[in-house]
Amino acid sequence: MRWGTDAVAAMRKGLDDIRSSFDVPTAFPGDVLAAAEAAASRTPGEEHIDATAWEFMTLDPAPSKDLDQAFALERDGDTIVLRYAIADVNWFVTPGDPLDAESWKRGVTVYLPDGRAPLYPPVISEGAASLLPDEDRPAYVFTVHVDPQGDAKLAGCERAIVRSRAKLAYDAVTPSDLPEPFADLSARIVAAEERRDAPRVEFPEQELDRTADGWRLAFRPRLVSEQQNAGMSLACNLAVADALFAAKTGLYRTLPEVEEHQVGRLRHSARALGLEWSDDVPLAKFQRSLPGDDPSAEAFLVAVRRAGGKASYEAYREGHRPWQSALQATYVHATAPLRRLADRYVIEAAYAVANGQPVPDHVTQAFAGLPNAMESGEALANQVERAAVDLAEAVLLDGRQGDVFDAVIIDEDERGAQVQIADPAIIARVKARGIDPGDAVKVRLADVDLAGRRVEFERVS
User: Fold this and answer.
1) Three-state secondary structure call for residue 309
2) Does 424 lie in the same domain as 449?
3) 275 occurs within a structural domain
4) Is there a domain that residue 409 lies in?
């Protein structure tokens, strides 16, 4: 069944089908909503110090309402002091209550181009727990010292009442809006990454954009302000990871190294996209060298993300150091508790360790079960994201059946050859014989199946 040529209607119908096909939660049960309403009225108590005098601010996409993080910066000699306020979700969620049980079912917030399925009800995630401007909010305040080399160390953690002074947006913020040490802090964090031989902090996102003559599938470049903001989060997460590992506890985010055969495939992708990659330059260094505003570079970085191993979580084990290969460091997730279940427990453990207290038993027990819960939630989120991209590609190409595209073979297996098309930036499969990775070919769009979110190409030369 075809849905016609109207791209807007096709996308709308396709996204609704994705929600249904993958059982994306569309509403919260009544008991969860009731628990959220009751929790939202809780007044912070003696656990929280008054930190409203600190000049916190947030930096996020303009439409965002679920604000996990706020920052304040100052100098102490040659050290930059980052105070990172993270939403105190633990204040609103009690172990075993309906909010807690539902968050374990969901694991993460699931995003689609036209909406999202949040981890917590909006009265919490966009209201009582969100670090909205000019509102007193409970938060964990991590104090992180960043030295001139960019190394970050956790110097303390407090539960506090904070008040954000400004809600800054990635696409509108100017240097004059930011505290004086901000640019220096960002430069230090980048220098530390380069010293570790770590690639970029964030990968680009693939989006469907409306244009004057239809639709365009594009890789949205990361703005400088996004990269800088991600760097602050990175510094905090690295500092927390080191503190937890030293205390022999924690839940870590891990990622294996990109396998050698995948690096070879990525070299073919780079060639297909017109990128010059010398044989003697390793992948991480090549990634760092790419410009941030080049669509071909953004397409390549998406290919890197797809080629990498599977990211996972693992609890502390004696004698084993967890590793995140893309960061070349031991790493945790602790800065997005409104969107990721695991962060809530990592934060609670870090608070205990920073204050010389034992990690609560329920947190240690949670570390054992969280890898499976997070894998389940992230698997759904990834499947939905992939399905949405497949749908966007089908919508974009519908009506172009018969068109011929330049492509490069990037891989071959028992299912056929995989090709990188440069314009539009799509990776697809094609039946072909007598070819090798790196060969330039021409492929014809043979069919578009909107209902199946599938496009089919055939080799013509």
Assistant:
1) coil
2) yes
3) no
4) yes
Is 295 among the domain residues? no
- Per the rule left: phi > 0, alpha: psi between -120 and 50, beta: everything else, 402 is left
* Residue 94: Cβ within 10 Å count: 13
* Structural domain contains residue 100: yes
Residue 143: CB atoms within 10 A of its CB come to: 18
Structure-token match 């304040």, residue found: 72
Tell me the Cα Rg of the chain: 23
Record the tokens describing residue 32, joined without a space: 């969860």
- Give CA 127 to chain center in angstroms: 22
Instruction: Report the number of distinct structural domains present in the chain.
Output: 2
Confidence (pLDDT) at 55 = 97
Q: Which amino acid is at 314?
A: E
pLDDT in tens, 22-52: 999 989 999 999 999 999 999 998 899 999 9
Lowest-pLDDT range, 170-174, 286-290, 311-315?
Answer: 286-290
Cα 321 to Cα 120: distance, rounded to the nearest angstrom: 32
C-beta separation of 329 from 219 below 8 A: no
Q: Are residues 348 and 420 in the same domain?
A: no
- The pTM score is 0.89
Nearest of 291, 166, 155 to residue 224 by alpha carbon: 291
**Residues 6+ away with beta carbon under 8 Å from 292:** 221, 222, 224, 227
Specify the CATH number for the domain of residue 440: 2.40.50.140
Q: Residues 6 or more apart from 322 whose CB is under 8 A from it?
A: 245, 252, 253, 254, 314, 316, 330, 331
Digit-coded pLDDT (tens) for 184-222:
999 999 999 989 988 654 555 556 555 555 556 666 667
Of the three residues 397, 414, 440, the one that is the final residue of a domain is 397
- Rounded to a whole number, what is the largest CA-CA distance in the chain? 73
The range of the structural domain enclosing residue 389 comes to: 7-236+339-397
The tally of CA atoms less than 13 A away on the side-chain side of residue 273 is 27
